[in-house]
Amino acid sequence: MSGRTLPGGLIAVLGFGLAFLYLPIVVLVAYSFNASSLVTVWGGFSTVWYGRLLHNPQVLHAASLSLQVGVTAASCAVVLGTLAAVALVRIRRFPGRLLLTGMVHAPLVVPEIITGITLLLLFVSMAQMFGWPRHRDAITIILAHITFCMAYVVVTVQPRIAGADMDLEEAAMDLGATRLRAFVDITLPLIAPALISGWLLCFTLSLDDLVISSFVAGPGSSTLPMVIYSKVKLGVSPDMNALASLVILLVAAGVAVAGWQMRRAETRRKKEGSVLF
Amino acid sequence: MRQGSARWLLILPPLVFLTVFFLIPFAFAFKISLADSIIAIPPFTSLFSTGPDGHLAITATLENYRYLVTDDVYILSYVFSLRTAFFATLICLLIGYPMAYAIARARRFTQNVLLLLIILPFWTSFLLRVYALEGIISEHGLLNKLLLGLGVIHTPLAIMNTSLAVYIGIVYSYLPFMILPLYATLEKLDMTLLEAAADLGTRPWRAFVDITLPLSLPGIIAGCMLVFIPAIGEFVIPALLGGPDSLMIGRVLWDEFFDNHNWPVASAVATIFLVLLAGPIALYQHYQMKDQAQ
User: Fold this and answer.
1) Which segments of B53-139 are extended strands (E)?
2) If we measure between CA atoms, which residue out of B83, B85, B285, B258 comes closest to residue A233?
3) Mean pLDDT for the stretch of residues A57-67
4) Using CB atoms, which residue from B129, B230, B239 is nearest to A111?
5) A56, A73, A76, B82: which could join A145 in a potential S-S bond, CB 3.0 to 4.6 Å?
6) Inter-chain contact B96–A143, Cβ cutoff 8 Å?
7) Does A81 fall in a domain?
8) Which residues of B touch A147 (CB under 8 A)?
9) Superfamily of domain B71-261, CATH level 4
């Protein structure tokens, strides 16, 4: 059936749907180059709003906090998520297996507002009981982000580990490698693409999170989405258009490059594999 | 023995982390939903106290849950959230199904390009995409400019700050979540079944209803749940696009917390909300498990 012509109606819906998905972003990026400070009138091409952003200390501070949180949370989530995925794939039976399975998947479906509230209540209660965390700051945001990001890592990495060839690892162990050594040298490179895409997914999710961060952040620690939200709540503003365009273009470029790299690595491996075996 | 302890090095870190930061927080939310609201930091009473004679006393109250039933706003917002999420999911399905079908039937190369186009919005900031929508549907937005310019309407349409804007926002934000699982099942569909039906003289429409639709049911359920469940708890969309009447439960929770500082009532709302969600979540998990088992 592949390649057969489709009914015109289907193509029309597809075109309409794609236009619906992309038009708002295109308009937003276009208006970020608007010289006029009135968001409704086109006043000629200008990059003035991008220049303004670089002199806005609130935005710069929030952006740096968001990047720190994103990198730390994504890295921790990849480590913890990979451990969970390996445990779930490689160890058939252990006490708490069902609990772990449920807990790694549940954050995907629990609404973020619930996650945010319950985590805030946890931090407040812990502060009451143990005196920690004394303040809610970057640390509490990072812990919260690791919690909801881990699920995405497990979902991305688990199928890769399940698909990785155990025979190679066993062969390495027969030749005297320890189990850890065999895993690090053989399976880890095989699942590396999944680890990278899991990390990128966590990083973008962390960079984007408004709701959970708003609950677990303290007074002095506003992340970028929190600053953006407080501004756009009042309506469309040209400097936020510029900021939004920057974020969107950076993420799109990152995803495109990562996707291309991974695809190249995959084809290269397939080629080498077919030569070897 | 070495093997055994190595196992636990693998299992314990994620298990302990998620127990502390995912499971236990629910217990605290439930506990605080049984407490009284007071003006203090933190703004709730302690359930456990030691009396003057050294006995442990437990002071719990169901008052917060009673309050949810007596004040209309909570029931109304639950109903409104469920209704909005339901119809938004239906619209997503009606737009997403033909899109997924068209993608699944396209040529290999076109298919990959189209899939990338569907996945890309998934990676771009949710908050910023909702904000971007404002540029289209606001009073001076592109849609009104276009329609006014064409002479279709003479006064700008008031879409922003209405429930319609919330619907548009949810469909816009969650459409990729509907398309991807639908595509996954439609792509695997055995085309020889449809050819056999056509050979036997079945009309295309009939074949679609009798073959394609039932076989794509797992994708339909997965897609609907991926839209429905997060849409009920949506906060950003009703807060940015909706009007004062777009009372979704996420927004009520937010206000209860940040404006009214009534944490015990907010905890009770959250607890009930989670109980209500258990059904759809269980349904989704059930079909996921079945899908994985195959």
Assistant:
1) 56-58
2) B258
3) 93
4) B230
5) A73
6) no
7) yes
8) 17-18, 21-22
9) MetI-like (1.10.3720.10)
